[in-house]
């Protein structure tokens, strides 16, 4: 659906309780979307909704649990009649360590959230978009700059983000008969909690073993990029959008 259509568009945003997901949810609400806020922490979701007037539906959801994901999309359709966009955003950085140090539990928990959770949400959104009248919709997967170039000591996270690229391309192909498009946004160094945890502003670990203070950019600008992707007419799609802080060590990292 495009902005000229009368009915408000409907977006589901996972990981909407913080970071990029929170910023995207608030931007879409400000733009007049009906937004379904999904995440594990109900209180954080309500904080997201309260900061921006607009029609928001809060649905606590653990994306690693199939029943939670099915309930999320059932409630979205029950409340608004359809799903136009999924911003598939919920994720975790996972364990830090070289590949010999990462334990199986840390690996599996990262895969469960970043990859399996993204698959479950995309699959449920796809089914809803395929069944609705008129059929169609848009899935936007949140990849990462690490889908292109990893940070040191991040094998679990990096592997899942490379896999998201394959998931994105597969959904795009599968969705063509039904008017369902899929694109990916890869973001580098927004001003969010995860960047603080990585020490980006104080000295992030580089490939050569040194630490370097890296530039960041406002998360609201990343949200604006997602909103642009979401608002395109049905006839257009962005397959991949890479947005980074100007001057961050990405090309030739370290």
Textual characterization of the structure:
The chain is an alpha/beta fold. It has one domain: NAD(P)-binding Rossmann-like Domain (Rossmann fold, 3-Layer(aba) Sandwich), CATH 3.40.50.720. Helices cover 41% and strands 17% of the residues. The protein has a 7-stranded parallel sheet with strand order 3-2-1-4-5-6-9, sandwiched between helices. Strand 7 and strand 8 form a beta hairpin. The longest helix has 28 residues. The protein is globular and about 55 Å long.
Q: Short summary of the structure?
A:
The protein has seven helices and nine strands. With 254 residues, the chain is α/β, with parallel strands linked by helices.
| Tally of strands | 9
Shape assignment? globular
The CATH H-level superfamily is: NAD(P)-binding Rossmann-like Domain
* Largest sheet properties: 7 strands, parallel
Enzyme class: oxidoreductase
Keywords: Oxidoreductase
Family: Belongs to the short-chain dehydrogenases/reductases (SDR) family.
EC number: 1.-.-.-
What features would you highlight for this structure?
oxidoreductase activity; SDR_fam; seven-stranded parallel β-sheet; alpha/beta; disordered N terminus; SDR family oxidoreductase; 254 residues; Rossmann fold; 7 helices; two-stranded antiparallel ribbon
